[in-house]
Amino acid sequence: MNTVDSPSEGNPSPLIIGHRGASAWAPENTLAAFRWAVAAGADGIEMDVRLARDGVPVVIHDADLRRTGGRADLVAELSSAELGRLDVGSWFSGRYPHRSRSEFASETVPTLAQVIELARQIPGPLFVELKFENEDAKPLVAAVCDVIAKTGLAGKVIIKSFRLDAVAEVRRLQPNTATAALFEPTLTTFFRPDRIVRAALEAAAGHISLHHSLARPKLVRLARDAGLAITVWTVDSPRWRPWASRDRIFALITNDPAAFRERYR
Ligand code: G3P
Ligand code: CA
Fold first, then answer.
1. Nearest to 59 by CA among 128, 10, 133
2. Whose CA is nearest to atom 1 of ligand 1?
3. CB neighbour burial string for 143-157, b if at least 16 within 10 angstroms, e if fewer
4. What distance in angstroms lies between residue 185's CA and the mean position of ligand 1's atoms?
């Protein structure tokens, strides 16, 4: 049995997962943010993955470098080596001066392999979100599965995506790797919780990952009854924790893992 797959019993104490690392305190999706999450006592981390021009999976949220790199290039137009030299840390100090640190200026776009290597120190799990525009999902799925297989840490990884065809493809390529179907609020997901659960099951996901506005009693009950482990994102108030314990939520994804640890130490 995979260590993170099918925990349908839920979790009496939900795992605390650093969203893009501890992204309230360090530039998102950088090694600094992931180290910060470890230091903050996060149980696991969440990251976003895209393909660089040379086919290497790299860890970055947006399709282009405007917001975090201050330039217009698309991630897909640059090689992983070029991205590995690009400053994606300074923007954070400009945006959050009270949390700025000079060393953030040396943070660059890490590869998935680098982040997983660093995450060996984390008890787990590692949520790896596959990001797409409208492209075919298969190249990114194949590259990510390949990296994860080589690290030997597949048992700690949960691959997730809003693209349920990608989730199903992970299952096809690597049936032993845990997967999560991601849902954000739309008219359909908000009013038809049954459809969310059905879609997750059709993609053969063992986990369901819900925007917090969707985490309402009916959907939580339906998902639990269907044997899906439930993760809720992105919550920064520790007040979510007692609710999550009561409702046997598997994990809470937060930008500020330390806030949860401090309150419930
Ligand atoms: O965990 C899900 C969440 O990360 C999805 O939203 O935009 O932060 O990747 P986003
Ligand atoms: Ca994400």
1. 128
2. 233
3. bbbebbeebebbbbb
4. 12
Give residue-wise pLDDT tens across range 104-138. Answer: 999 999 999 999 999 998 888 999 999 999 999 99
Mean pLDDT value of segment 60-83? 98
Number of helices (H), then strands (E), in the chain? 12, 9
Ligand 1 residue neighbourhood (C-beta within 6 Å):
19, 46, 48, 61, 129, 182, 209, 233, 253
Q: What is the mean pLDDT of residues 26-42?
A: 96
Most informative mutation of 17, 19, 47, 189 for ligand 1 (most atoms within 8 A of CB): 19
Q: Residue 13 above 90 pLDDT?
A: no
Residues whose beta carbons lie less than 5 angstroms from ion ligand 2: 48, 129
Among the atoms of ligand 1, which is closest to the Cα of residue 233? 1
Confidence of residue 227 (pLDDT cuts 50, 70, 90): very high
For residue 82, the SS3 value is helix
Q: How far is the CA of 135 from the centre of ligand 2 (A)?
A: 18
Give the position, in ligand 1's atom list, of the atom nearest the Cα of 211: 2
Q: Is the pLDDT of residue 262 over 80?
A: no
| Gap between the Cα atoms of 158 and 155, Å rounded | 8
Q: Quick one: average pLDDT of 32-56?
A: 97
Residue 164's closest CA among 147, 184, 145, 192? 184
Q: How confident is the model at residue 31 (pLDDT cuts 50, 70, 90)?
A: very high
